[in-house]
Amino acid sequence: MIRRMLAVTVASAVLLCAGIVARADGLDQQRADAVTELRALASQSHSAAQRTDYLAGAIERAEQDTADRAAVLEVRPGFVAELTALSAAIEGAKGKVDTSTHLASALSTQQTVLAENKNPDTVTAATATIHAITEKIGSEVTSWEAIQSARSAGPGGPLWSTSGPDGYSRVRAALDRVGGGGVGLYESSSCAGGNAPACANSNGYIKYRADIADWSTGRLNWAMAHELAHIYQFRVWGALTSSAGYGSLFGNDPEFLANCMAVVRGYPGSVGCNGDQQAWASGIWVGAVR
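RE: above sequence
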């Protein structure tokens, strides 16, 4: 009897332990399932957050792209306007100057603008380039026209028409005296439409109005020194016009600079200049721009 009760007790204990183990195993499985589900939810949440971030980034990029395109479109009309002006300049230059190089440069610049849809600064820079090309063509045409108008009193034409050989010789002597030996000299009434007594051409010669042949020696010397100064300015024109010293000392005024250059040569006019201006102006005579 006792053995039977003991056997029953042992069996019950074994069953109880088995139940506890089974319960523990069940709890472990539930925990594992919960962890797996939690990880799945976390992964889904992370993926959702990534999608949200991607969409937010995509929207931001799209908005920036739209803004960039709008900024480019805003400055394009100015470029088109400059192209229109360039087209007119090229048309006006036909039969006068060769514009093939300018046209090639303009076409290259146009391609740059057509390909640009993000940076308005690129279009702005291209607009400035087209404007500069137009101005260059205009300058070349102006020079060509000036040469044509001076044919009767310049290269290919007579040295004088009304001042006579004696008047011409006097002006020629003044130009030689101030250092202009070898510089072309021609009588013409074309300087500023006849309003200027003399003028220098960027091609390296000087024209004078007939009446200055009767000027006093001092005044005539000054006039020739002044015009000769312009010839030397033309030789360094690019460096001169971009010089800070030219702007600060002479206000970018070539006439004022020419007066100072004449003073340096010993032929002062009615407008004086100080020591710093004279020192700076002296460099132009030797091709030095500071």
